[in-house]
Write a structure and sequence with these properties.
The protein is mostly helical. The protein has a domain at 69-121. Helices cover 78% and strands 5% of the residues. It has helices at 2-20, 31-59, 61-66, 71-89, 99-119, 123-132; strands at 24-26, 94-96. A two-stranded antiparallel ribbon has the order 1-2. Helix 1 (2-20) crosses helix 2 (31-59) and helix 2 (31-59) packs across helix 4. Keywords: Membrane, Transmembrane, Transmembrane helix. This is Phage holin family protein. The chain crosses the membrane at residues 7-26, 32-52, 59-81, 101-120.
Length: 133
C-alpha cells in the first residue's frame, strides 16, 4: 500500500511540475490518459531513483561533500531528464525540454513530494508514533 501512495504522490508532484515549468510537458487527448502517463512516469522515476541514484551518490561522495550537497540538485535534474528519455523510449508522452527545465522541475518535484508526504498520513509512521505513546 505504501508503494502505491508513493507513486501517487510522485505523480501529483510531476503534474505540478508540468503546470509550473514551461519545459516539462505531458500530452494526451484526455485527462485520464495524462493521469495514466504521469503514473507510469512516476513508476519510472521511482525506479531510476532507486537503482541509479545510490550508485551516483556512492561514486560522487566527494562532490557531495565539496559542494555541501548542492551537486544533489544537478543529480536530481539529470535523473528527471533521464526519466523523460526513458518515457519517450516507452512511447509515453512526457517530455523534459533540456537541463534547466529538468533542474527546476526536479526542485518542484522534490518540494511538492515532501509537502505531500508531510500532509498525507503514512500508516507505518502513524503506527510507530502510536507505539511510542
Amino acid at each position: 500500500m505504501r508503494i502505491l501512495l508513493k507513486v501517487g504522490i510522485t505523480a501529483v508532484a510531476l503534474w505540478v511540475a508540468t503546470v509550473l515549468i514551461s519545459g516539462i510537458t505531458v500530452e494526451g487527448d484526455t485527462a485520464g490518459r495524462r493521469a495514466l502517463t504521469l503514473i507510469a512516469v512516476a513508476v519510472i522515476f521511482g525506479l531510476v531513483n532507486a537503482i541509479i541514484k545510490p550508485v551516483i551518490k556512492t561514486l560522487g561522495c566527494a562532490f557531495y561533500v565539496l559542494t555541501l550537497g548542492l551537486i544533489g540538485l544537478v543529480v536530481n535534474a539529470l535523473l528527471l531528464w533521464l526519466t523523460s528519455e526513458l518515457a519517450e523510449e516507452l512511447s509515453l508522452p512526457f517530455h523534459v525540454g533540456g537541463f534547466w527545465a529538468a533542474f527546476w522541475g526536479a526542485i518542484v518535484v522534490g518540494v511538492v513530494g515532501w509537502v505531500l508526504h508531510v500532509i498525507v498520513p503514512d500508516e507505518k509512521r502513524k503506527k510507530d508514533d502510536d507505539d511510542r505513546d
